[in-house]
Amino acid sequence: MRDSKQGFRIRRYTVETPKVSGEIRLAVASDLHGCPYGEGQGKLLTAIDREKADAILMPGDMYDDRDSDGPFWDFMRGAAALAPCFYVTGNHEFGRRLEGVTVRSRSEAAALKERVRALGIAVLEGDRLMLRCAGGQIAIMGIDDCFAGSSRVSEQYLHCCRQVRQREYTILLSHRPEELGGYRYFPGDMVVCGHAHGGQWRLPGLRGGVYAPGQGFFPKHAGGLYRRGQGYLLVSCGLCYRYPALPRFGNPPELVMLRLVPSKKNIQKDI
Hints:
The chain is 19% helix and 27% strand. By secondary structure, the protein is of the alpha/beta class. The protein has helices at 42-50, 70-82, 91-94, 106-117, 150-163; strands at residues 9-17, 24-28, 55-58, 85-87, 97-98, 101-102, 122-123, 127-133, 136-142, 169-173, 190-193, 211-212, 216-217, 224-228, 231-235, 254-262. Helix 1 packs parallel to helix 2. The radius of gyration is 17 Å and the shape is globular.
């Protein structure tokens, strides 16, 4: 098992859109699973600070039900002091399945979310919030992980769809890239996910990795920026490094930096 000396890369993506007037910089921190990166998460927080992020997006599994929650709270407190933060749950905020039983109740997950909110972090449950910064403004939405209940999550998703305004750049945070039909018909501009851990093992010529939870072997959307209907699907490879049963190979943990930059017309390219 690797310790807090473990490094991470910064993966960068740039998307052009006529819906912003200047550059907007978004850090995507996903699937931390409570892994420590230096004392008080200093290594990770310093990297985000140096990137001058306008906001920090967290698409789930920042918490982990199997380990100490100290590194999770260190990161959440530090992130809240750096920039506006937007957070949705992953499966580990609700627990994991053991012999068909979920080992963490929804009421415990609700209590966890309230503690996160108390730090000043936006916990999204079908909400639409506006991020305003020097580069313009964008709408950020989010939905719970499916462990919250399929009907509840579907309602949150439909509520988000109804709130999309075509003149605003809109991002949806959702933990699992394979849910809800891959979000192909989400009317917004981008869906940001995690969960797939980059396919765990990445080999030359094999873009999607070997295995991802929910997608199985040779996953289609394990980590990267993909076309999604008229917009994009961004899947972070995540920051978790400490599960020796299935170690990462050719697939270092990553912090994602997404730049939205203005364009005269909406340029869509296959990635």
